[in-house]
Amino acid sequence: LHLVALNLPFSGDMRADFQCFQQAQLAGLTSTYRAFLSSHLQDLSTVVRKTDRYHLPIVNLKGEILFNNWVSVFNGNGGQFNIHVPIYSFDGRNVMTDPSWPQKVIWHGSTANGIRLVSNYCEAWHTADMGAMGQASPLKTGKLLDQKVYSCSNQFIVLCIENSFVS
User: Fold this and answer.
1) Are strands 3-5 and 159-162 parallel, antiparallel or unpaired?
2) pLDDT tens per residue across span 104-146
3) Burial grade of 152 (CB within 10 A; 0-12, 13-18, 19 or more)
4) Do 149 and 12 form a contact (C-beta atoms < 8 A)?
5) Fewer CB under 10 Å: which end of the chain, C or N?
6) pTM for this structure?
7) Do the beta carbons of residue 117 and residue 38 sit within 8 Å?
8) Which own/partner contact pairs does 15-20 have at CB distance under 8 Å and 24+ positions apart?
9) What is the per-residue burial (b if ≥16 Cβ within 10 Å, else e) of 60-89?
């Protein structure tokens, strides 16, 4: 399953699932992509189909392995990954080095186990208000689910996960 970033950073007010769908289509990817975010309807840990959570590796756009499988992202260690394996945007840029994302931080709105944090997910990703808060993770920590709180007015990286495998 591919883990890919949106082509631009976003504040806490985003239509992330739609953006993931649209950018994947424009990139010629045929699978369904969902935002790597907890929402008011769903915990991040359940975004990938049950049948695909255990046996498929999580890879970047070039097929390099980030995680052995989806469940290993949520084993309580904060989604630890090898920072030497790049995360690419749908248009092929490395979010860790490209200046289009000046802040190397990803939104997630979740606990380290992928459960939604209703107090810290920018009002279900519908506000960029400076007073509202969102849970995010600085990529330099080598974790996708590090537990840092930021104002929803920040423009951070938004990741998308291929949520069902199509052969």
Assistant:
1) antiparallel
2) 999 999 999 999 999 999 999 999 999 999 999 999 999 999 9
3) buried
4) no
5) C
6) 0.96
7) yes
8) 16/125, 16/158, 16/160, 19/158, 19/160, 20/158, 20/160
9) bbeeeebbeebebbbeeebbbbeeeebbbb
Instruction: Please list, in sequence order, all residues whose beta carbon lies within 8 angstroms of the beta carbon of residue 8, skipping any fewer than 6 positions away.
Output: 100
What residue ranges of the chain have pLDDT lower than 50?
none
Contact 36, 47 (CB under 8 A): yes
Give the H or E element holding residue 123. Answer: helix 122-125
Residue recorded with tokens 């309807």? 41
All domains of the chain in start order, with CATH: 3-162 (3.10.100.10)
Closest to 26 in 3D by CA, of 12, 38, 8: 8
**Residue 125 identity (one-letter amino acid):** W
Residues 6+ apart with CB under 8 A from 127: 12, 13, 152
Sequence letter at residue 97? T
Residue 137, beta-bridge partner list: 106
